[in-house]
Amino acid sequence: MKYVLVTGGVVSGLGKGVTASSIGVVLKACGLRVTSIKIDPYLNTDAGTMSPFEHGEVFVLDDGGEVDLDLGNYERFLDVTLTKENNITTGKIYQSVLEKERRGDYLGKTVQVVPHITDAIKDWIESVALIPVDGNEGPADVCVIELGGTVGDIESMPFIEALRQLSFSVGQDNFCLIHVSLIPVLGVVGEQKTKPTQHSVRELRALGLTPQLLACRSAQPLLDSTKDKLSQFCHVPAANILNIHDVPNIWHVPLLLRSQNAHHSILKLLDLLSIATPPDLEAWTRRAETFDNLTESVRIAMVGKYVGLTDSYLSVVKALLHACIACSSKPSIDWIAASDLEDDTARLTPEAHAAAWKTLRNAECVLVPGGFGDRGVSGMILAAKYARENNVPYLGICLGMQISVIEYARSVLGFEKANSTEFDEHTPNPVVIFMPEGSRTHMGSTMRLGSRRTLFQTPDCVTSKLYCNPRYVDERHRHRYEVNPDVIGVLEEAGLKFVGKDETGKRMEVGLHVFYLLLRFLWCVYSHLLGPVGFRFSPCQSLI
């Protein structure tokens, strides 16, 4: 197995995930099979219990893994299906070591960070790297590993040491280190500064890892003099200093790497030149250029709880982008905090309330994504009601589906106090209820998670047509609540049809009503430009 390690320095948020994904794309374009691992140094076992404001969206995998959003980037870029084991956290590592200690596997030894924790990290990496993720048999040729955080962080030290040991054990022909760093430009001076990167590389070298390539983030292309200085003080050949400057869209990043012969440098270091082919990124180039040349746009109102951090809905945004490109349009997303639509906001901050409603009314379509808790629910219900009454295309995902069912029960059926038991345990009209197999005492990994089958009840319904008329679809889920089976009959009699159900026929997965499309599952996590149009991201196309 060949390993490509991507680390980051200076500051977080430089785009290590996109860089790692793009490296994978270029290597895959050279005819190699690629898999990915993301290392997150936090103590959480997984991302499932973390607030979107803390860490962005929680990405859901086929096997039910709740993982870091970077794994979504890997799947979208590389067209692979990863497992929860592809996301390593400090919590997982310590949990596995402590379980072994309790079983007595260490035979009375004093359990320490070195060697026990570092050995567990190495074993995990080497075993997961062998898992095929592209639908073919046998292990991949290259495993791209992204180390989260910034070099020098205390919590990442055990991983740095484990990776140092791994690089030594597998040999220099099987390990390549790419360090992503920032080249800032001070406004007054206007000079590209290399000192932050120099210090970051020095820190990395002091920990026993020497980068063979530098991926330098900057607003503008690097000057030759900047590259020469970096080469001199970081001990990296100038040809291996890659510049990832700002581009119109992230699909240009693999093209940027290819134009700088990043693939050749990596293949040479990993002794893969003999089996690799010239990179074929023709289709990728067409996608990037297609987006650049789009002129028409569609205004989409995104009414959610976590709009303060757009990464909270990253998969939804990407799915909208993919669907818009398929429809030859550019998405223009207007972010609306659901609470700003509520009557309380009209009294407390009337300007915010008026602006939110003006934005909603100017939108060509409305999307209410997932979320937990009762904050902003009243505003989402108002948005769903506005869309239904004014024939504005509406897409409700997960919580958005529940919201629409509540609104329909209140406005059409006359159940004024209809609600979800999540928001009102004592509601006289529980149209959305807690799923019986869920846990009320533990939050982590206790929801209905992962890929589940949805059977279409009406073959000629709009949703089935959008999926190219299959009998069923497999989509990923992440929820604790479901539409109450006892009210399905009365809702359907009133015009809200449930055209997709689970294999038991008791759980409602897809709802339709004129301009309403309601989805219980997280269709957006499957969305990527590599999939066939009309299947991977078709629900968004119905919105557009």
**Overall pLDDT metric:** 88
Radius of gyration: 25 Å
Overall form:
globular
What structural category arises from helix and sheet content?
A: alpha/beta
Strand numbers in spatial order across the main sheet: 11-10-12-13-21-20-19-16-17
Beta-strand percentage? 15-25%
Q: What does the main sheet amount to?
A: 9 strands, mixed
The DSSP helix count reads 19
Report on this structure.
The protein has a nine-stranded mixed β-sheet, with helices on both faces. Helix 4 (90-103) crosses helix 5. The longest helix is centred in the N-terminal third of the chain and has 16 residues, at 113-128. Helices cover 36% and strands 21% of the residues. By secondary structure, it is an alpha/beta fold. The model is unreliable at 531-542 (pLDDT under 50). The chain contains 19 helices and 21 strands. The chain starts with a strand and ends with a helix.
